[in-house]
Amino acid sequence: MRSSRTGSRIAAAGVVVANLVSLVGVVFFGWTLHSLLVIYWLESGVLGMAYVAKIRRAEGTDDPDELPAWEISSVGDTAPRTLESFVGKPNRAIARYFGTYFGAFWLFHGVFVLYGLPSEFPDMATASPSAVVVAAVPLAIYHVLSYRLNYLGAREFERNGPVTLMVDPLERIVVLHVTIVLGSIPLEWFGAPTGAVAVMVLVKTSFDLEAHRREHERARQRTATASTAN
């Protein structure tokens, strides 16, 4: 348990440091709103790949009663599927379906961020490639670090079911990025003042920390429950 908590704290620090790069860029180097949106879009792609790896490695069981009553559909589906319908299916099949579903959402999101917003706001200062690289790399490193320290190092894969893992990134991406993208529109109307863009970075950081806490707290609770049962 101690190593699990230590790994979680290190990963949480990684969340803050990785997002701090964006905050410093906005406040001191004038990074634009569009740069942030591209950075966050790229990060969501890394997050999706991390969860594909997690789903494939998961050894825990899924409780259908704990799954939200969502219906999702992907390419080739004739009708929406419930999350419960995936319980018991092979990890590879679940990971493949998740990757297709998440990838379609990610590409649609990317079209909006890369082309939709600049078309809607012709005067928008477009993303700086150097800013995107400088900020996206530490965010990607954080997700790799979290996977290594917590999911593998603390053996969280033993307590997480593959279908349960589908829920986390979908909730996180939909809530966070819809909020950020919709929030960016009025910001751009008012000229994207530095203070407002910095607040967006802080809001995103708080989202990341809460998602981190929920994910690893669930794994610790399942570990405690299993220990009590044994």
Your description of this structure?
The chain is mainly alpha-helical. 75% of the residues lie in helices and 2% in strands. It has helices at residues 2-29, 33-57, 91-120, 129-153, 162-189, 194-229, and strands at 71-72, 81-82. A hairpin with an 8-residue loop joins strand 1 (71-72) and strand 2. The two termini are 16 Å apart.
Overall average residue pLDDT: 83
Rg, alpha carbons: 19 Å
**Per DSSP, what share of the residues sits in E-state strands of 2 or more residues?**
under 5%
* Most strands sheet: 2 strands, antiparallel
Q: Give the end-to-end Cα distance, rounded to a whole number of Å.
A: 16 Å
The chain-level structural class is mainly alpha
State the helicity in percent bands.
over 70%
